[in-house]
Amino acid sequence: MSDTEPSKIDHEKSDPPEKRATRVDKGATAAGQSSVPFERPQLLTTDARIKKDIRFRRMCIITACTSILILAFLLGSILTAGIPTLSWTLLTGSPEPEPENAGLWPALMGTLWVCAMCSLLTLPLGIGTAILIEEFTPRNKVAKKIFNLIQLNITNLAGVPSVVYGILGLTAFVSMFSLFDKSENSLGPTFEVGAVYYDQFSNLASDPFVDTGGADVPERFFLLPVESRNAASVVPRTGMLAYENGESGLTQVDIIAIDPLSEQPSTDPDQLSRTIDNQSTPGRISENQWYYLRLPFGRGVIAGALTLMLVILPVIIISTQEALRAVPATLREAALGLGSTPWQVVWNVTLPSAVPGIMTGSILAISRAVGETAPILIIAGIVYIRSAPQHLMDDYTVMPLQIYNWTSRPQEEFHNIAAGGIVVLLAILLSFNAVAVLIRHRMQNKLQ
Amino acid sequence: MSNAVNPAPKATSPPLRAKPTPKLPSHVSEMKTEENNTGVACNAIEMQDLCSWYGNFQALKSISLNVQKNKVTAFIGPSGCGKSTLLRWVNRMNDTIHTARATGSLHMGTLDVLANTTDVVDLRRNVGIVFQKPNPFPKSIFENVAFGPRLHMKLRRSELIDIVEWSLRKAAVWDEVKDRLHAPALGLSGGQQQRLCIARTIAVGPEILLMDEPCSALDPGSTLAIEELMNELRKQYTIVIVTHNMQQASRCSDETAFFFEGELVEMNKTQSIFTNPNNKRTEDYISGRFG
Amino acid sequence: MSSAVNGNRALQELEQQVQTLLHRDRRNLTMVRLREKGIFVGLIGCGLFSLLITVAIVFVLASETVTFFQFPEVTLSNFFLSTDWTPLLGDTKSFGIWALISGTFLVTAIAMLFALPLGLVTAVYLSEYAPRRVRNTLKPVLEILAGIPTVVYGFFALMTITPFLQWCYSGFNVYNTMSAGIAVGILCFPTVCSLAEDALQAVPTRLRDGAFGLGGTRFDATVRVIIPAALSGIISAFLLAIARAIGETMIVALAAGSRAQVTLNPGEEAQTMTGYMVQIAGGDVSNFGIEYYSMYAVAFTLFAITLSLTIVGNHIRRKYRETYD
Fold it and tell me: Is the Cβ–Cβ distance between A212 and A183 less than 8 Å?
């Protein structure tokens, strides 16, 4: 009896609990039946307590198993629905309205753009804040109070629901507090850089009333530059600067502008294909450079990245703080003792030692940004996006949003491709996790 | 036998430190000229009524003492008597402890160490410190020693290599590491790590070396090596060592100060402290009655 | 012998050379110090940015909420006292926040019913009973669970839990708070578990050894000594999990339905605060209409509730933490 007792305390004991339970039970019956003279009666109460302990342990194991089972069930149900729908179309297609053609490409690229931008913005800010709090703690009482406030604020920010950050992003980044909406024109942004506007004309080929003399004229479109988004339409004249949007970008074209009501167009097919009706109404289109910038940001990539930054900033700060705290103080003292300034200590000693920890935390935070749906849904809404974003102000959608979109539709087929999308998303996140675990593992090995 | 035992080549070398060098920081050069003019050993550190607190706890009570130049001064006393605190005030390492503050005066030449305006970075260049536990950076041996010079001087690669070799030789660890300068410093033994830390400290070119129980985490062999090293270094540096080990203090120091509960009980030539202490408490402590 | 002399001479040269190097002009500290100041100012900027976020949240939510209450259709008494939330009905708009709050609390209560006991028991198992091997496998599994995006849980709730519930009992609506609550519970489980486990681990081994030394079983030690010692950490874990459940959005948007009503029947649909915000943001209501601003009022309420829970949780953890040093 007494020799089974210490085994309860042993952590590493690998006996299955059932086996040990029966052993104790046997011991109990033996103690009850054979009246060994020096067996003390107190042991009976011990016995009941041990039984309780065993029951509790069993309950614990059952609970832990249940949680594993739920996870397995969750993954299983998604994998069985999702894996059959995995296809090249799903990865590289755009989200067409027919489920069999629908794909994730724009969402995939949107996630890449938004999360890459978000990490670029958040990492310096987050790591900087953590360094400030951990390494530059002031001696001054007032400054100390401010630091405590910042620290408290970060812990509280970590608990703010992400949907609230979405609301903040909607006001602060998408509409920028309506600061730029004072102009009368509500169609476009107030301020922009890197956009060129064109009026688009088609040639006469599309006009059924023009006599082309029986020649087969292909339809062509010509772009005539205009000054700004709101400039008046161009009236085309022969010899004006005009471009055609071809395979290799814009090529300059000599256009011929006529009034088809009063003039007879040339019958030469080449000339005819370059002829524009100078009375026609053009369409205004814009070509945006990669550095295109507008204020307010609108529903562009940058607004999404900034909003996700708000969501993961506290996470990155807190994990970086932990990584910095794990660097032994003796290293800092050594560097200080050699006459380093505080920043030299941080840059040469503390940061290099904390890099693995910071990377692990950052990867986990970024994977949270990848999976975050609510704030993006609030600021970007559900829009039909057919192509990957081209610049920072471009409209975008992200993978979880696309999955949400598909899940909330009534058709069964969309649910299946949503499951396929989830499988892709989980694969990405799991690879992130694996990298983080790998780094952590290496770090632990190094420390040992 | 370690190479540090034979002092012959260094004994013949001219006392380079005594050469007046006008480019040194003001307080340091002043100390030098003073010594040159008078020919008498002068004080490297002078303390008057130094008191120190951690929060509300008074760790040092009105300490007044002088540390002589180019001598080894040992601070002894039981744990918690304030000797390490005092040592850490000399190069203001206590600044890292937020509750620590001090009153009184602590001067090095004309420099008021405790003044708010004192540049601690500059101060710590001139007052190096070696800690209780060897704490090399998790970098290569070379990078460890090169760390300080890189911070403070613009050096060519060859000059940096010279400084590293010189420092490692001074710290009597060159022969053991010269073939693996780019191996991680954490792979060295404890004693080698501690000597590496000493090399790292002297590579900056300090005047004063503070040693905070440098041997307490080491085995006897390494301790012996460090003590021999201190014997070598005293020729060029003013050394202040905090130690628990009274044999160590008696073996390698010129002056000894005994502290008890934040007070300086007695300070004297090491020999007289250990053979003929003036104070009863000193006698009790060194004869092993307490502490 | 001669090589030793050469060696000595080389050493002397080295000594001379290094001494001149060490006595050369040291790098001027002015630039270093200037850079130091610049970097410090930059870091302060980073720190202040996080404060700015909080200020911006409060400012944006408060000012837009004020705009909301300036609409003639909205009254404070209607907002705080009514239980009808019908902002999208043309003529009979009513903005009674209690309808949304009750939906939120129903989902949260169901979620906590699952997450808190299961999380605590699993934490106790992991911390006190589990062999190291089991612990080392279970902890990463929990981390993976915590890393799964919430939209996946939403999909799971709608596609797996709801059909299962309907199979069990036909009274369940397609959208129901039960399934959303269970999914939120699964979502919060890892949070509860790992925070509670941290709290239990923080109890020093001395206390355990003390309990064992007095002849206690592991159960006695856990229930009588360790859990009471870790209670503040456990309670704060619970509060943080509740805050997380209240703020959870995608699961309820997908599985809990979009009819705001006060109900205790977990089989019926009920809209939550977050669900309403998603409905407005994802739907096509006109910007700057009354529905749009109602979203801010709801967000403000949500923010106030979760922030107070977080603050109380952190306060409990900090204030009532037992320290053993």
Answer: no
